[in-house]
C-alpha cells in the first residue's frame, strides 16, 4: 500500500501513510525525478539506515526483502503477512514495553518526502481533534501525538521519517519508546543498522517497497505456528500496536 490515495477514515486514524491523492508532476513513475533531479549528487551517509549500495557494517541481519534488519536476542520481529503470498503488510520490532513500526517507500531521488508527509500527519491528527506537537529528535523533526491503539484507547506515538536515495522510511515508535529516549535506544540501534533494498525497478513515488516473511529455518518454524503466534499476540495486552487496515493477516514472529 502506498502513501497516497487512502480513504478519509484511514487518514483520521493518525497513520502516517495518510495523504491526499495525487503527486507532483516533477516526479517520475520510478520514484526518481525528472532529468534535473537525476543530477542531484549522492550524499554519503555516516550512519544508517543504509542503502543497499552503501558500504555498511557487516553484521547478522534478517532478510525481509526490501529491508535487511539487524538480528538481536533482545528484540522480536513481528510481521503481518498474506498467508498465500507471504507479502508483509506491517512490520514491527518489539522490545520490553516498546515497539517501532517500520515501513519503507519509494521516493524521489531528490529526497524531502518527510517534510510533506509530516505536515499531512499533523493536519490529519489536528482535524480529528487529537493532540500533536513537532519537536527535534534523533532523526530530525518528528511528530509526537496521541493516536488510537489496538482497542481504540489513546496511546502516545512518535512519527519519524528518514529520506534516502529513492526511498523513504517511516517509523512509528510506541510504548515507552514514544516518550523515553533511553527506552528507545535499542530500537534506535536496530533502525540505524538496517539496510534498505530499493532495487532498480520502476515504482511510483509513495508505493511501499515490498517486504516478505524472512526466509530461514527459524522463520519457517514460526510461520508453521502462525495461529499460535496470533493467539499469543491477542492475549498480550501490553504489546503496543496501532490499528492498521489488514486483510486476514498471518502474524509471525522471529528473533
Q: Topology, please?
A:
Blueprint: H1 8-11, E1 50-51, E2 61-63, E3 67-70, E4 76-81, E5 88-95, E6 98-106, H2 113-127, E7 132-137, E8 140-148, E9 154-164, E10 167-175, H3 185-193, E11 195-196, H4 217-224, H5 226-235, E12 250-254
Parallel strand pairs: 1-11
Antiparallel strand pairs: 2-3, 3-11, 4-5, 4-12, 5-6, 6-10, 7-8, 8-9, 9-10
What does this molecule look like?
The protein has helices spanning 8-11, 113-127, 185-193, 217-224, 226-235, and strands at residues 50-51, 61-63, 67-70, 76-81, 88-95, 98-106, 132-137, 140-148, 154-164, 167-175, 195-196, 250-254. Residues 4-41 and 217-252 have low confidence and may be disordered. It has 255 residues and is of the alpha+beta class. Strands 7-8-9-10-6-5-4-12 form an 8-stranded antiparallel β-sheet. Strands 1-11-3-2 form a 4-stranded mixed β-sheet. It starts with 7 loop residues before the first helix and ends with a strand. The chain is built from 5 helices and 12 strands.
Amino acid at each position: 500500500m502506498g502513501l497516497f490515495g487512502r480513504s478519509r477514515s484511514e487518514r483520521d486514524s493518525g497513520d502516517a501513510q495518510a495523504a491526499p491523492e495525487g503527486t507532483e508532476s516533477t516526479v517520475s513513475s520510478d520514484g526518481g525525478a525528472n532529468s534535473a533531479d537525476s543530477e542531484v549528487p549522492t550524499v554519503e551517509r555516516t550512519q544508517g539506515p543504509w542503502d543497499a549500495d552503501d558500504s555498511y557494517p557487516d553484521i547478522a541481519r534478517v532478510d525481509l526483502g526490501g529491508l535487511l534488519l539487524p538480528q538481536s536476542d533482545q528484540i522480536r520481529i513481528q510481521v503481518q503477512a498474506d498467508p498465500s503470498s507471504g507479502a508483509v503488510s506491517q512490520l514491527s520490532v518489539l522490545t520490553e514495553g516498546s515497539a517501532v513500526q517500520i515501513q519503507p517507500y519509494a521516493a524521489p531521488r531528490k529526497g524531502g518526502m518527510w517534510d510533506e508527509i509530516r505536515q499531512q500527519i499533523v493536519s490529519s491528527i489536528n482535524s480529528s481533534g487529537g493532540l500533536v506537537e513537532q519537536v527535534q529528535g534523533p532523526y530530525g523533526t518528528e511528530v509526537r501525538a496521541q493516536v488510537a491503539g489496538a482497542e481504540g484507547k489513546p496511546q502516545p506515538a512518535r512519527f519519524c521519517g528518514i529520506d534516502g536515495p529513492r526511498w523513504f522510511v517511516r517509523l512509528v515508535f510506541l510504548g515507552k519508546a514514544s516518550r523515553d529516549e533511553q527506552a528507545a535506544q535499542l530500537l534506535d540501534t536496530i533502525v540505524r543498522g538496517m539496510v534498505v533494498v530499493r532495487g532498480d525497478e520502476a515504482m511510483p513515488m509513495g508505493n511501499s517497497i515490498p517486504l516478505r516473511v524472512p526466509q530461514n529455518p527459524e522463520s519457517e518454524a514460526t510461520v508453521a505456528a502462525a495461529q499460535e503466534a496470533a493467539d499469543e499476540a491477542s492475549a498480550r495486552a501490553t504489546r503496543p500496536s496501532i490499528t492498521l487496515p489488514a486483510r486476514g493477516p498471518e502474524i509471525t514472529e522471529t528473533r
